[in-house]
Amino acid sequence: MPGAEIHDDHVLTKASEDYLEAIYRLSLHDQVADGTVRSVDVAEQLGVSKASVNKALSTLKETGMVEQSRYGRVTLTSRGRDYAALVWRAHRALRLFLETDLGVDPDVADREACLMEHVLSEDTMGRLIGYLERQGLRIPE
Predict the structure, then answer these.
(1) What is the model's pLDDT at position 33?
(2) Top-level CATH class of 12-77?
(3) CATH of region 83-134
(4) How many CB atoms lie within 10 A of CB 40?
(5) Which of 97, 103, 101 is nearest to 139 (CA)?
(6) Residue 140 predicted with pLDDT over 90
(7) Which of 8, 34, 35, 96 has the lowest CB atom count within 10 Å?
(8) Which of 116, 118, 96, 91 is nearest to 106 (CA)?
(9) Contact yes or no for 37/30 (Cβ under 8 A)
(10) What letter would DSSP give residue 13?
(11) Residues 117, 4, 55, 14: what is their CA dihedral angle, to the nearest 10 degrees?
(12) Which of left, alpha, beta for 74 (phi over 0: left; psi -120 to 50: alpha)?
């Protein structure tokens, strides 16, 4: 997988990964053609203050994961996009596994997948995704 070396090292904290994932998800579903995201939308999605988002963005900029325009809109770098895509895919795969194989309530599965996505290695995630695919399941978008 592209950028796999980033995920194995977990170069970001859980909190930074959550911010990066939120930016990624918003950039996928936002109607802005250039893929930029407003920090206020990140704050709203994560239920945090704009000040918290600004602090997280400083960290993400330092690690080369995001860029921010002078108008405040945030864009993922290619490295940030690769990393965020891995975190989001791990989240969806874990949620699917918890719901379908273990019968966990969807809301609980979503919350717990968010916790688990930050600690599993690339190898373990690859094995889980392979298992799901062998079961005929497709990871939802």
Answers:
(1) 65
(2) mainly alpha
(3) 1.10.60
(4) 11
(5) 97
(6) no
(7) 34
(8) 96
(9) yes
(10) -
(11) 20
(12) beta
How far is Cα 125 from Cα 4, in angstroms, rounded to an integer? 11
User: Which H helix or E strand runs over 131?
Assistant: helix 122-134
pLDDT, mean over the chain: 88
Cα-based distances in Å from 119 to 41, 46, 69, 82: 26, 20, 32, 17
Neighbouring C-beta atoms of residue 139, cutoff 10 Å: 18
Cross-strand partners of 66: 76
> How far is residue 33's CA from residue 12's CA, in Å, rounded to a whole number?
28
Contact between 46 and 106 under an 8 Å Cβ cutoff? The reply is: no
Confidence of residue 116 (pLDDT cuts 50, 70, 90): very high
Token pair listed for 76: 């993922």
- pTM as predicted: 0.84
